[in-house]
Input
Amino acid sequence: MSRRTRRAVPARGAARPTVTVCRGCCCGTAEVPGQDHAAQLRTLRRALDGTATVRVTDCLDACERANVVVVQPSGEGRGNGGRPVWLGLVNDPDTTADIVTWVKEGGPGLTDPPGILDLCVFRPSRRVRAELHDE
Output
């Protein structure tokens, strides 16, 4: 029988914010006309490389608000009371740039979003939140 060295378990919560981009049944499709969806995702990934994790998910079940982006706090942000922020109608480069700016400054729990993003914030149904284990 061998003895293994036990390592300390890291603290809960991601070290950096996570930006989840919906690309399900409506988001990221021709149902949102005039939006270069591939460019939007490319912009988020390039601009936030090393600052946040950018991931793509299937339908977030908020199709009436396509395109949907969820910004989840880092562990530090969550420790400061930050919670996931759901943003809908993220359909232009300026809104995408505002998200990038906010996340680079720390995101939920560490800094307030630019005021214009208040127009995009919404609260999804409890069922959707439970399915995503965000709260």
